[in-house]
Amino acid sequence: MDHYAIIGNPVEHSRSPKIHRLFAEQLQHVLAYEKIEATEKTFQEKVEEFFTKGGKGINITVPFKRLAFSISDKLGACASSCGAVNTLSFSEDGRVYGESTDGNGLVEDLKNNNIAINNKSILIVGAGGTAQSIIPSLLANNVGQLSVTNRTPNNAFKLKEQYLHLAEIVCLDGESINRNFDLVINTTSAHLSGELPEIEPIAVEKATSYDVNYSYGETLFQSWATNHGATKSLQGWGMLVEQAAESFYIWRGVRPKTRVVIDRLSSEPEN
Ligand code: NDP
Is the dihedral of CA 77, 82, 87, 89 positive or negative? Predict the structure, then answer.
């Protein structure tokens, strides 16, 4: 049986084992998928131990995506442009291959929801790891203008600098925004402290809003956007399942159907 895992800290509440179990059931693949908790110090050792024992692939979650990038021998196109890895595989020549599937996961879910991004004006709220991971995939899909706003402006400027070779990203002060966008993507973890990012509500008026966070029921940002005139307000279950489907494809060469898994996952709190 092929073995896979997700490594992170915390990892206890990860939905990835359930998603991959549902993919495997759907495709009648036999596989095992476990959770591994690590620290900065033990991360590399735990990854190596897993692969030495014959493990085929590992998903990486917070806070190890940059570390996973640094231990990869070979990188996929998305990982090399964003500097982060959420999917590791062990190739037969003994080399570790790293790719980032978050960006393509988001773009797939936007497509699933009929949200066009070609030539559209997009505001990314937040400038952490997720913002960093999704920018190359958005740019690869010919977005119109890409803007970023973040609580700590300097982190938004760092993103702008990182992607200068790909596009001109506009950095905005959230509280000075005076127009709406076609699509507003919340990538902050503000909800963890029961907060909303501080942006002027006009940003989401008549816009589509997408919160990469997910919950049973509406997320805070999703409700806020609806209440401030967003025409469509979505949350991140779809992105979560789509990025997992991309990982599954990298590992096993076949892409599972996602709709049924998204519906099941977003409606069933238990594992
Ligand atoms: P990071 O820690 O790298 O970045 C967090 C971002 O949120 C930073 O921009 C930070 O701003 C901002 N932030 C945090 N607290 C607040 C606050 N109170 N008000 C305003 N801004 C705030 O996290 P990630 O980018 O890795 O993850 C962000 C979220 O995305 C997580 O909740 C994660 O679960 C979710 N996610 C969902 C995925 C999916 O598939 N649906 C995939 C990946 C992540 P500052 O720079 O000022 O600190």
Answer: positive
Q: Which of 15, 102, 7 is nearest to 64 (CA)?
A: 7
Statement to judge: residues 107 and 143 lie in one domain: yes
What total number of domains does the chain contain?
Answer: 2
Q: Collapsing DSSP states into helix, strand and coil, what is residue 220?
A: helix
To test the ligand 1 pocket, which listed residue (60, 100, 130) has its Cβ within 8 A of the most ligand atoms? 130
107 and 231 in a common domain: yes
Report which protein residue has its CA nearest ligand 1's atom 18: 190
The residues of the chain scoring below 70 in pLDDT are: none
Residues 114 and 229 in one domain: yes
Q: Is 229 left (phi over 0), alpha (psi -120 to 50) or beta?
A: left
Domain of 18, CATH number, reads 3.40.50.10860
pLDDT score recorded for residue 68? 97
Find the helix packing angle between 259-267 and 16-27, rounded to 10°: 140
Catalytic hit among 46, 65, 120, 160: 65
CA of 62 to the centre of ligand 1 (A): 10
pLDDT of residue 93: 84
pLDDT tens per residue across span 120-177: 999 999 999 999 999 999 999 999 999 999 999 999 999 999 999 999 999 999 999 9
Full domain range(s) for residue 184: 103-235
Q: What is the CATH number of the domain that holds 115?
A: 3.40.50.720
Task: Reply yes or no on whether 111 is catalytic.
Answer: no
- The whole model's pTM is what? 0.96
- Per-residue pLDDT, 270: 74
3-state SS class at 262: helix
